[in-house]
## 1
Amino acid sequence: MLTPDISAVWVVGFLLLCTYLLNTLVFKPILRVIEERTTAVRSAKELADSAARKATAAAAEYDQKLHAARTEVYRQMDDMRKSALDKGAALLASTRATVEHELEIATARVQQESNQARAALDRDAANLAGAIVSRVLGRAS
């Protein structure tokens, strides 16, 4: 039969004491540090995800504002181009009207000078014809 020995009780007591001391002094602090690190990692990951979402939203807002600004600049450029074309067309029409008016004045002046020259030629021709006739008749007589 087995007789319990007091040394077995001491071993069991020592084992329980070692278990308690290891649990209290080693395992609980290690588990607490692991839990704190896990919490810190989870918090950092959530913070990084939040920052990534904010960065994505900021990039989307930037792209939207950039697109709106470009659209506005292109619209302004188109308005300026149309305005310049309208001014050019108005200037061309004004210049054309001025040139046509000056051409009409010059044509009228040339026509008037031509009529005066014809009248002077007709007068001179009549005088010359009279002079020729009087010479011819004057010599013939």
## 2
Amino acid sequence: MSKKIKVILVLLSVVTLAFITVSCGGKSQQEPTTQPKPETQTTAPAKPETQPSQQTQQAQPQATAQAPAPSAGKPKIEAVDPVFDFGEKSNIEKVEHEFTIKNTGDALLQISRVTTSCGCTVAQPEKKELQPGESTVVKATLNLAGRVGPLTKTITVFSNDPDNPQLTLEFKGVVKSLIAIEPDRLVQFGEFPSDEKPEPKTVDVRSVDPALKFNITKVEMGEDNPFDYKLETVEEGKHYRITFSLVKALPLNQNIYKRVTIQTDAQLEGKPEEAVASLRNIIVTLSARALGPIEVQPPTLTVRVGDEEAPQPGQEASQAGQGPQQKVGTTSQYVRVRGIKDKEFKITEVVPPDPQINVDINERDKGDFILKISNIPRDENLNGKKFIIKTTSQFAPELELNVKTIKYPVSKFPKPMGSTSSSNVTEALKKALDQKKDNLPVPPNVPKPPKPPVTPQPATAPQNNPNPSQ
């Protein structure tokens, strides 16, 4: 090969190498601008990964409002021993006891007040607020003065325990008197015909304590007492006997109760004056019932007026058992008429004090009748009036049944459906609303619930096309 040709080939190689170098260098210069494009493409979609967390934060209040709130703790009151049995004690003593109560819940227990069933009992808690697990005592004192026989007294503790707002504590036991009344403090003459005299009744008054001595200074019978008494000494300072007898006629067919006070000068060494004072006035009750030839029971017909359960006058009743004759605003009652001395009589007529009153006469047995009295108006004007019961008895040709009215306040609102006086409740309610619609309270303006927060949608990142020509 000639030297000239070799020079040409070398030049061609240099040119070719330079061209290749320039083209490769251009591509390498373009790569830094094209390679970040895929990186931009991969990082742009990553932005929504942070936006869902913002969406969750914005929706969190709404989710919290819809989810049920966790149950809060609540107090719980319990008594360790709610009943204290003091056994048997005399009626000149006092019983003292401390009831322990606990808060077994998981919130603060607050005692608002403590009440007792009788003025003879005093109770007070040491603390009125108990933390969970904490306890306190209720100090209570029961005065037995004047009490005799089995006794139960209660203490009520009011608190903020939602399940048991009223806790009951209890004293119980038997009280004995140092001066015994035998056979009983209730002296019963029982029932007897009015034309006969009952047998006298006797009670023994004696000391049951060897250290106690007393004298009966007076037997106070009170005014208008149909009974009288006779006092005798069995053992001086220890034992006395009183005999009661009926000395005046009693009203027919009525239970009569009369109180008698036995006064003594009881003394007991070593005991405070206030404790012995209850032994100086001892109450005894006398009871009796004189029966006429014919008994009417009850002797007085009591009518409730203004009863909230009484339907309005003039409307038909819908209660079961009341016939079509029974009007709303009226009542029905039953009266028994039976012979005591005369069992051969008949009832010929019953004259009511109001012509609208119906009386059905039903003979149960010989000389024994049931009167069904219906359509009795709940009217105050009936007070003091009488039913006249006419009979064939020569001992009691006419009997009287007195009427007494008792007024009760009328409820301002109709009873709910399903109650005993639910008839025409809908109409009554509608009428009440029409009459008082101008006076009805305006319901408060309740704000509308807030709209749920708008959840922003993640923006789609623009994608850089690596190939602009496409």
## 3
Amino acid sequence: MKHIFKSLVEMQEYSCKKHHEMEMYGRKESDGKYHWITFGQYKTMVDQMRSALTGLGVEPEDKVGIISRNSVEWSVCCYATFGRKAHFVSMYENQTIEDWHFIIEDSTCKVVFVHNEKIYDEVITLVGKIATLKHVVLVNEEHYVNNKKVLTFKQLLNKGAEKFVEPLYPSSTDTMGLIYTSGTTGKPKGVELSHGNILANLFVITDLIDFGPKDRSLSILPWAHVFGQTAEVHALLCLGFSAGIAEGANTIVDNIAEIRPTILFAVPRLYNRIYDGIRAKMDAAPSPVRKFFYKAIDIGERIRDGEDIPLKDLLLLRIAEKTLFKAILRKFGGRLQFAVSGASALNPKIGKFVDTLGITVLEAYGLSETSPLITSNNIRERRFGSVGKVASNEYARVRVEIDYSVLGESVQSCEDGEVIVYGPNVMKGYYNRPLETKAVMTEDGGFRTGDLGRFDQDGFLYITGRIKEQYKLENGKYVVPNVMEDQLKLHPLISNSFVYGTNKEYNIVLLVPEMVGLEKWASEHGISKKGEALLQDLRVKDLFQKELDHLKEMVKHYEYPRKFALVNDDWSIESGLMTPTLKVRRQQVYAKYKELIESLY
């Protein structure tokens, strides 16, 4: 990155001028094809929306919110807001009206953009209830197209085209926006990030992976999450690559084939789906094909483990790469070179599998409070199972320390401690929450991540758990449950899991089966039962017990859950058991299943 920008506005202006005629965002239209806008067209929309926001009275330090899925309009609203030196507040479509109410009021939004009419009808009722909220803008107007009382995105663009307003240029320390944390144990907090925070991430990205205008991504991650926003909105503008916007969760594989990306930014769940899908097809293939495939995969993984491989095996792998692997990669557009994984732990087995197919897998680590990037594997240095080395260079000096003293007796081993981050990527603080901010910051400016971790001798970081989620068994031993939960969820028939054992003799686990897959498995094994009756079948219980037996090999003897129960419920955002970023709300899950949990002791 040759240009060192002072703000995201300066970066956007420079990039749109440099890449004026190049494709930027693509989306599926009614004709079933992807249509693309250029960087130049995007700049025109940003200019018009910035001018329109000025007309709505948006001034420096005002808040502009959005409740929407990823879209061209989302990105336009974001950078139009920056050009007023105002702060952008992103929310999820799948949150409740109570969540939106809290965030809009807590952040003091003046204007809120909403994706569709359903959300509009709910949010418009907050005007008058929230003192600062003056305007609700509908992005997709559909049935409200002729309703003059409804303010729309298109109307604002037309209004903004009438009178051009020059952008205001924030400083690097000025606030860019608020990213609200999921709130697994309470109300969400607004993470206040500056332009300099995001730029610090962008300054180091090119050290990790070589990509730019020649590259294309499929936008999968929600932009209300800092990972998706930094990777697919800000980095896109910084580096000049393009992104097609996925239609939805169920069309991702089809969309990948359509836009033929060279790089993907995704969470482990997607790579798990790819792994399960490929294995299912290979398992159904004729025996010679199946054996050839798994033999080649095994050779590739052995190479990555540093083994000496006989020449005949190397030749077999090369043949697989040019035939079977190439055919598989064509299903993903045939150009996919890099897969970046973040937000939660990636199973090393799945990472090696995807990597062996010919897609370079890079696992990274970060948090909303660090904009988000802290560490990453890169194209020169990778280690599966780790989250890479500290992402730092002369433009953005980031430092990570491990605090071994903060946990006292709860430290799992002498190598584990709390990960503390120093550098220009660390947030300004939690918006209007000085006490909460003070609680997570060290006296010398470090951010306490709340994550347990350790470095190996080569400087690769390993995340081993969350401090606030650990608990003590009756025998005084500490347990970090999410490590086991993440491992169990890697099984294709386990949708979710919850390990519990606070002050108990032993751990138990609740397992939420993936019912569609389980019923298919049952049918293949001569079991006609459905729903709750299926979960009570001894053969089904034996299936899940075997998966728990595999877990026994990976954990300490006192950590292993001695008993389990299967629950046929939907753990979702709507049910209140999951956060918008799909993390388990532990207190709510315990409250709902308290009687069942206690029956296992």
## 4
Amino acid sequence: RLTKSGKIKKRSARRGHLLGKMSRKAKRKLRQSSYVAGVDAKKIRRLLPYG
């Protein structure tokens, strides 16, 4: 997903399974989305349909 400023947002990794061993705080932090690093952004932008 592209933001208005052109950054690429992504969902946090490690959200699939085995969450029982993680602390509540760690799971809460994973809810937040983050941004793709600038190094990878160019490659990913090429793969996006309207990027």
